[in-house]
Structures are given as C-alpha cells and as structure tokens.
C-alpha cells in the first residue's frame, strides 16, 4: 500500500526513472554563485512573536550581509526560515515551518513534525522509554511506537529559551540557554544547555551545543530542520541529489529502534556515497524502506580517527542550483524524508506540506545508544562538558 501511494506521488512529480548524477564540484557560499553578491555588515534584530503560558517569545532575524537571512524563535530554538539565493540571485526560503507561533504550539501528538527545533535531552529514540545508568533504571514517557522520541512528550522543543545576542564585524550570533531540572521527562541530573547560532558572511550557519550536568545523565542534541533547496513552497525533494559520506548505517526493527548492527550501504538503497536523487530508490522493495515508509535512518559517518569537524553530507537542487553542505563533530546523521506529512500542515508561504516536502540532516549520536554498548557513548558526567558543532553551509553551482 505504502509503495503504491509513494509511486503515485513520484510519478506525479515526474521523478520516475531518476538516476544518480555525476559528481560536480560545488561552489562554496563565499564563492561560486554568491561571489557576485556584495558583502554588507551582518546584522541581528529582535521582535515579539507571541507568548507561551504568559512567557514572551521573541523572533531573531540574523542576516549574513550576503543575501542570507535566518529567523530563529526562542520557543524551542526553532529555525523558522532560512532564506538563501539561487544561482540567478533569487532569494527563497529553504526550510519548512509555520508562519505563526500557534502553528508550532498546535503541532502535537503523533502528527508532530518538530519543524526546525532543538530536540533533547535525547534526540531520536530510546527503546521502550527505558535505560540503565550506573545501576539505576530510568523510565521516560513513550510517544512513538512504544518508544521515547526526541526527549519525550515535552522535550526541549517545547521550552522557551533565554537569549543573548552578539554582533561582530564578520558574523552575528544568538545564544539560547535552557536549564532542565533533574527528573524532567524522567532524565537524571540538572542539565544546563546552551545552543549558539552563528551566521557569517560565507553564508555558513554554525550550531554550537554545550551542556553540563550535576549528576550522570544521557544527552543527544540536534536540530530538526527540514530542507527543500528548491524552496519550501515547492512540491517535494525527490529530484534533489544527496551525498552522505558514510559506508555504513544502522538498520532498525519495526519500531525504528536500531538492531545494534552496523550494516554496509553498498548494494542497497542506502548508498549515497555518490550524488544520488532522493527519489531514485524510494520505491525499492527493501524491508528497511518499507518499515519507515521511506528514509528515516542513521548513517555512520566516515570519520576515521578524526574527532573534529568533518563534512558529512551534501545536497543540491538541479533546478535552482542551491547547495547545502553539512559538517559536524557528531558520529552519525539521521536522513529523513518527511514520510508522514500528509497535507494537513500549511507552511510559512501558505503552501500545504505533503509527503516528501523536505528532508532532514539530523547530526547526532546513534539512536538508542544508552541501550547499545557498542555504539558511541552518550553518557555525560559531572565535571564533563558536552560539546557538539554542526555547520550548514549554503552556496550555488
């Protein structure tokens, strides 16, 4: 049933028969298609955006000085929009979102999308909402197929964060802070978290995460932006090409919990080691694709011995020429193709989002790591600092 429905969607979009394209060097945002755009001083502004339980919510607008603009809410640390130029210089929004605060507040339950939000304390899934740490068993609210997803029913995406701003000669920054009390959503330890968004004149958006705890806990933070490089008001992302620098991924069980296996992508629909149209293999009769109704899996980034920032993924839209390069310090990335969006959501441009309206690149530690000793650890102890960086770099080709 799912395969037939998706096949019809792809046929309507003119995607059938797509093949992987040849690898072409992508111009960076500082050069290529954006090089001709004169650089102006970056700027940051603030405006009211409503209230949550009597607490004011603000919206910050960061501009790069080179035709890129990012809007961020203090509610959930949500990236509401990212506007960047295409190869012809036309500026468009390339992430999914809602035009008003109510859109985010009303996006709840099984249909929740987490558009643009910081998710935590633990992004992605923890099996059956349970894990053990130092001999103690912890239980979390379950909100997704009997598992805990993105921190539980009221995760970091539902909090109003404290904000401070920075304006330098070549970049602007917004730092958000939230203190999660011990026991919130079942997690141990008081966790103090900051996320800093920095936009520079190279049209790079840096996300720097830091956290400390007063008791052992687990943590896995990420940003849940959905990208559509053709523009958030276009039909779908199936013709856009993606490269993921990963030779392996983590297969899942029917509830999308990793089996613990690290499986090779070669010879499977999960091989994005060269530029491949997102829709090229979506209708393949692959058990993993059928379980998730598309891509919703963790890729194991080829890091080698490098513990610093590495390029994890790239995406490009053939029609507009827009490109996105994702670099991270994280060991994994969750590539998700908006498999359950059904047309019930109206986005920032009054466009209805449907299946395949966007894709995520959620840089992360692996799902359910607390229950898999063979996965990189997500344990944070007192005296340690959780540090993670992801960079979204935009350009044209």
From TrEMBL:
Per its UniProt record, what Gene3D superfamilies does this chain match?
A: 2.70.98.10
What GO biological process, any one, is recorded here? galactose catabolic process via UDP-galactose, Leloir pathway
- Which keywords belong to this entry? Carbohydrate metabolism, Cytoplasm, Isomerase, Phosphoprotein, Signal
Per the UniProt record, which EC number(s) apply here?
5.1.3.3
User: Would the keyword Cytoplasm turn up in this protein's UniProt record?
Assistant: yes
Q: List the catalytic activities from the record.
A: alpha-D-glucose = beta-D-glucose
Secretion signal: which residues?
Answer: 1-29
Which CDD domains would you find in this protein's record? galactose_mutarotase_like
Q: Which Pfam families match?
A: Aldose_epim
Q: Provide the residue positions that the database annotates as binding beta-D-galactose.
A: 124-125, 224-226, 296
Q: What is this protein called?
A: Aldose 1-epimerase
Q: Which organism is it from?
A: Mycobacterium malmoense
Instruction: State the organism's lineage.
Output: Bacteria, Bacillati, Actinomycetota, Actinomycetes, Mycobacteriales
